[in-house]
Amino acid sequence: MSKLDNDDDDEITRERKRRGFALQAALIEMRTVVFGGPGDRPNVTNVGVLVSDGHSTVDGYRTLPEAELAKADNITMLAVIVNADHNLHDMTLISSDPRTDLYLLTASSQLDMVIKQALDRLCNVTSTDLN
C-alpha cells in the first residue's frame, strides 16, 4: 500500500455528494466495453484503474462482485482512493494486490505521481519516457 501526503482536496467528495458514484457501473463498462470490445488487444496486459473516494453510493453491493469478475478476466486492478475518509475494506478487495495496487491519496493532484509509479511497475517505463 502506498500512502502519499499532500494538502487535503475534497473535490471528489463534493462531486459524490452532488450526484453519487456508481463504481460497479464503471467496472462493468471497463470489463465489457474497454477490455471486452473489438479494440481489446489479446496479447496486451489489461490494467484497470479505479479512482474513487472509496464509497460507491449507487448499487454499492454490486461493486465487489464486478471487481472479482474483472480480476477473473485477467484484468490487473489498481485502486486509487482520493480523500481522507478512506473505505479500505472494499478498495483493498478491488485491488489485485493491496501491497502494490492500492494507493491512498490525500489530494487529486497526486494522481500524476500514481500514474507514473504504476507505469514504472507494470510497463517497465521510466518516468523520463513520459516527458
Write up this protein:
The chain has 131 residues and is α/β, with parallel strands linked by helices. The protein has one domain: von Willebrand factor, type A domain (Rossmann fold), CATH 3.40.50.410. It contains six helices and four strands; from the N terminus they run E-H-H-E-H-E-H-H-E-H. A four-stranded parallel sheet has the order 1-4-3-2, with helices on both faces. Helix 3 links the parallel strand 2 (46-52) and strand 3.
Would you kindly provide a brief summary of this structure?
It contains six helices and four strands; from the N terminus they run E-H-H-E-H-E-H-H-E-H.
β-strand percent reads 15-25%
Name the CATH superfamily assignment.
Answer: von Willebrand factor, type A domain
Cα radius of gyration in angstroms: 15 Å
The number of strands is 4
> What is the residue-averaged pLDDT?
76
- Please work out how many helical segments DSSP would assign: 6
Helix content: 40-55%
Most strands sheet: 4 strands, parallel
Overall morphology: globular
Residue runs with pLDDT of under 50 for 5 or more positions: 1-9
Q: What topology, given as strand order, has the largest sheet? A: 1-4-3-2
Tell me the distance between the termini.
26 Å
The CATH level-2 architecture is identified as: 3-Layer(aba) Sandwich
CATH topology: Rossmann fold
Number of domains: 1
Give helix and strand order, one letter per element, not per position.
EHHEHEHHEH
Global structural class: alpha/beta
